[in-house]
Design the sequence.
């Protein structure tokens, strides 16, 4: 079995972080906590487990953050034991090749995508009864028993196969292509973000960052609120074009963000004696897909009083951020993690099911979002392309199987 994984080895993490800029190739060296490895093919760890062989898998920013050792090992989530060993690749479509004797939901030959497998153990995968409050509600990303122990799967999407508990994968509808299937997971991440603070008719909405999640958030915000005024903030020309195609009314790119936000929303911009800036008025809802200290600071100042900032992406670093707008403008600051059970038209629905339906009926177009494809053996080229947005990359995928 071939796989790429990250191990939270603190000395290797610190050495790689210190030398990465001077020696970019260190991430592929023995010094790095990341590895491309050939391992023995794993056995099923229990009767309700399955083994799948991968067809293709996307490269996600979360994977790159681990691979390139951009995270600070002092952040809160790094304290959890389930984070210590991570197989990279979760936007993956695969074929079931083996099922345990007690598996009821899948059979050999089914096509599946990874669901909760990438977040670590949940109450379902550990067969804990009764499940915690979040697993009971279908929100497995915030399971309270993630680090309780129990068997864990081997392998990931950046490889040829992996094992998973039957609760950790989702059967792909027969009428979805592999390309659409690869985009179901990132679409569901964008869906959850938008529904954490669903925009209303006529509201002003801002999406910061136009990588794949940001572009999908633009489209899903348009589906959720057809009459909303949606602004996207993009850095590269191909992102600007894609944001407009997917439903953005305006795109801010290469211009002063504060001035543009004031112009587009009618907000009043003030500059203090020390150069600090603040907006009165602004956006009703802001989805920060980037999640750096700068974008969080700007988001809080660009939201109107009583508005909401949803932090979707996050830079896993210790950050210094001015949170004063949360107080003096009563701005709501909330997070959005992964995907799970959502409410749509008054009914609970799995995010994967909802976005799959939109893909089938054309409401969520995916053409042109996969821009580059590489065989797994060219993983270094694939990673270099995905990290350099000047390449025109939106979604880079590995071709692995059929």
Sequence:
């Amino acid at each position: 079995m071939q796989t790429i994984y990250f191990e939270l080895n603190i000395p290797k993490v610190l050495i790689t972080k210190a030398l990465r800029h001077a020696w970019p190739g260190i991430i592929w060296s023995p010094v790095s906590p990341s590895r491309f490895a050939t391992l023995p093919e794993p056995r099923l760890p229990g009767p309700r487990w399955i083994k799948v062989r991968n067809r293709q898998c996307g490269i996600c920013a979360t994977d790159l953050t681990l691979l390139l050792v951009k995270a600070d090992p002092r952040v809160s989530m790094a304290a959890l034991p389930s984070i210590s060993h991570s197989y990279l690749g979760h936007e993956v479509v695969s074929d079931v090749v083996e099922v345990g004797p007690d598996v009821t939901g899948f059979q050999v030959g089914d096509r599946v995508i990874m669901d909760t497998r990438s977040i670590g153990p949940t109450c379902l995968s550990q067969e804990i009864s009764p499940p915690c409050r979040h697993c009971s509600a279908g929100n497995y990303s915030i399971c309270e028993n993630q680090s309780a122990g129990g068997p864990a799967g081997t392998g990931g999407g950046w490889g040829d196969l992996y094992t998973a508990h039957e609760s950790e994968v989702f059967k792909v509808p027969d009428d979805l292509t592999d390309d659409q299937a690869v985009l179901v997971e990132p679409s569901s991440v964008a869906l959850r973000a938008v529904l954490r603070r669903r925009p209303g008719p006529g509201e002003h909405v801002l999406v910061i960052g136009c990588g794949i999640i940001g572009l999908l958030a633009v489209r899903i915000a348009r589906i959720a609120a057809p009459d909303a005024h949606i602004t996207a903030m993009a850095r590269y020309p191909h992102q600007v074009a894609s944001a407009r195609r997917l439903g953005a009314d305006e795109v801010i790119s290469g211009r002063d963000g504060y001035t543009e936000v004031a112009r587009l929303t009618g907000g009043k911009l003030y500059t203090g004696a020390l150069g600090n800036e603040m907006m009165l008025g602004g956006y009703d809802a802001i989805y920060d897909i980037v999640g750096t200290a700068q974008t969080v600071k700007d988001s809080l100042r660009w939201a109107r009083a009583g508005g909401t900032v949803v932090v979707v992406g996050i830079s896993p670093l210790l950050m210094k951020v001015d949170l004063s707008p949360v107080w003096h403008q009563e701005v709501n600051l909330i997070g959005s993690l992964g995907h799970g059970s959502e409410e749509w038209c008054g009914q609970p629905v799995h995010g994967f099911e909802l976005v799959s339906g939109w893909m089938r009926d054309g409401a969520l177009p995916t053409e042109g979002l996969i821009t580059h494809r590489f065989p797994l053996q060219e993983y270094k080229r694939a990673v270099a392309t995905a990290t350099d947005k000047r390449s025109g990359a939106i979604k880079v995928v590995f071709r692995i199987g059929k």
Remarks:
- Residues 13 and 33 are 6 Å apart (CA to CA).
- The chain has a mean pLDDT of 94.
- The two ends are 17 Å apart (CA to CA).
